[in-house]
Structures
1.
Amino acid sequence: MARGLGEAFFPRRLDILANGPSAGDFPWDTRSTVLALNGAMDLCVQHHRPPEYWAACDPQPLVADFLTFTPRYTEYLVASKCHASVFDRLRPHRPLVWHVEDYPLPDDVWGVPTASTITLMAAQFAPRMGFWDLHFWGWDCCVMEDRHHASGEAFVNGKVRELQFRPSEDGPVLRSFLTTDGLAYEAQQAVHIIIPLLRRLGARVTIHGDGLVAHLLDFMEHPPS
């Protein structure tokens, strides 16, 4: 080690940009590799920082609306279950196709285990692309200043609930978040399943921002006394 030789295995960094309210905290002058998810592409365009990658997986036609601008040098990672309009919007680009394992796949095709959102699945396929130092931005799973997204779809539809953190069942409220059932479920999947799995495989995972995912992860790792 003292000889200062290079490491055989270097944890390549990937900044995964979701579209939660705290995504605006991303340092746009960073020189790292960026994977934008769904509507986060709009944030990248606004800040004149085309991402190296963009990914989506939902089958609804509205996913094509995230692609108002399609930067030339971005690599587009599109799940095979995405609507045909997404592929039409990406002409003349040649997107790379990946597969969600929620239906039978041919033996020679690799799939990504299904999860409830593109962020959860991106966390799983990023290491397969060679990225083991994963930094998440805008992965909040909560409402901040009446917003669920940093760009587009500013206000949350559906029933918003208050989620409280207490040191014990009858203890004082340490922190509360406004969220929905779907967002809370995503946060639970993140901290109970996906992030522990990634760390067991050797990945470094950092959640930036002050949203529900970051706080829930800290709450589990450093429970209040």
2.
Amino acid sequence: MITCVTFDVWNTIARIEVVYRRLASEISTYLGKPLEVVLKEILDVYSKAKELRRKAAFEEHRVVEESCVMMARSLGINVSKLKDVIAKVFYELDPKEVLFEDTLDTMHELKNKGLKIGIIGNTLFWPSALTRLILVKSGISTYIDYAIFSDEVGICKPDRRIFLKALEALGSEASTSVHVGDGIVEDVGGALSVGMNAILINRSSLSSAVIRELRVAIVKSLSEVPKVIEDFA
């Protein structure tokens, strides 16, 4: 029986593209460059930074700082100015724009089932404090029993240690827990490495599937998660 569900944040329960488009808008105004040009630069450096983080090219405790420097150089902007703009974007964001439509309903349904709910998130370009701000403003934090982020512990998914820390804090066993995320390596791979079940969110998928023998499921939306969890029982 599943007793605990943990979630990734960006591109799982919240749209990262909303953040990057707002960031691009602010920077394009500041630099006097076309919005779409700046947005492309941001998305390009995002892909490169994610790959470097996956390869452990950044120092574990300096991922946010080093990736932020990387973005600032790519955009041709001062690092401190970039940090100020990122903070401004987060404080002005409407959480309704950021959350996927089925996020709150899914959290509510899971909590009503008596499940523990956790967050296991990686950070890149901004500290977890800003992500936590969105969780609070959106109402998500009311459903969360425990949240852990890579910049707080110096450990990035898929490193099994961050999953183990979350499970310990939640008082849950891996075999009765499920992790939900959009990353095959970071989320699915990391969860399976500690014996958790894993659900991959793939909103472009044509169909959903549950492979019980592998303890893995693929779903097209968060709203499918409560039902799929029953298939792992």
3.
Amino acid sequence: MTDSQQHRTTKYGLDENGHYLSGSQHPDWKDLLEPDMENARFGLWTVLSRQIQRKGRHIYAQVRCECGKEDWKLLDNLRRGVSKSCMSCRSKARHKAAGNMLVETPAERSLQRRITAMMQRCTNPNDKAWPNYGGRGIEFRFQSTKECADCLTSLHPAEDWKGFEIDRIDNSGHYEPGNIRRATPMTNRLNRRRTQWVDYRGVKVAKHHLWHLIKTDYPDFDFGPSKVRTLVEQGMPADEIPHYQRVGHRRSTTLKTPDPAIVSLYRDV
């Protein structure tokens, strides 16, 4: 059957010759769109085929968005411009217009969540971390999540932040350009107010890491980490601890070995 004007009418039933007054009522046409509807564009939607679905008086067409998502959409909404794209593309367009961060990969989504958490603990008094951040004057000095994300990705791509943490170089400083960096969890844990430091061979070393450096430099050193911490607390200089002798008592021994990851924080190994 050709695509004639007769097929485009809205009349129903048969004429005096027994022909259908509307081509869309013919059994071969009642479940199909008209030929020129195939591959038709409605916003970001493209009609995939002439096949339709009927739900009562409503007609649904099978469409595909530019992002690849396929769906069935009400034909009337497509024609009136009510539906122009899938929800994901519509959300991205809205965020782009508002100047917000666009999240397209799992790495970007992870980075967005971390930035949001940073913002919350600095600005929301109801956040459980507020006392250690906003409560003591730490500020989030980026205008938006996107601005912070752009700053971080200028240092490293979003994918390269996996397994690393966002650390403030100055622990008493703010979240702002120049004071944030990518750090391992171990490095981040060191950069805390309660960390106690000692000078060992001209290097600033966390007290709970001192044993690992001494044991690396002096493999025959027989005292364990707890004894080293005790000597530091008693006021013994860190450089003298490797030569400590406990006169009249049996020296303690330990099978523990120094952690290369800890040693590498202070020197190249």
4.
Amino acid sequence: MDSSITAAVRAMRAGVLLAMLGVLFGFSMGGLFGAFEDRLKGSLAADADAVLATTYGGDSAKAQAVVDKSWAYFKRAHMHGGGIGAAALAVMLILAAAGAHRRLSAAVALALGIGSIGYPVFWLLAGIRAPGMGGTGAAKESLEWLAVPSSGALLVGLVLAIAATAAALFSRTGTRD
């Protein structure tokens, strides 16, 4: 790596590390699925069974539907962690290679990094909470404080990254036209 790219990546270090943690989170979830899938699913079912009479009115089919959806949320957390984290890292490298403004790049990287870890954790927590709350809607609503800022950080970070990259790539500074 040339020193200007290294310096640019260093300026984005907080976001880079958060995005890498997002990838680690996603990969770790996959490992946990491989090692403990039955135990994880059993725990979700036990949480639903604990409130079967009160929350589900004794309707085991309704409880099972929430458990199944919760498991889908676990898988969503796994996929979002690896995918968003990797995409965020790619965007950061593009910013560094394009020579985008360092302070803006650092802010963008931080936003992407926060979203890379926050958004997958939201899906995991929603999956954990849902069986005991009687539904995924209630679980997601209870975690709005995490979902909205982390997904917002991802969107704002990406829009700013596109703008910063375009500005850096199409700037006439340093060209010989």
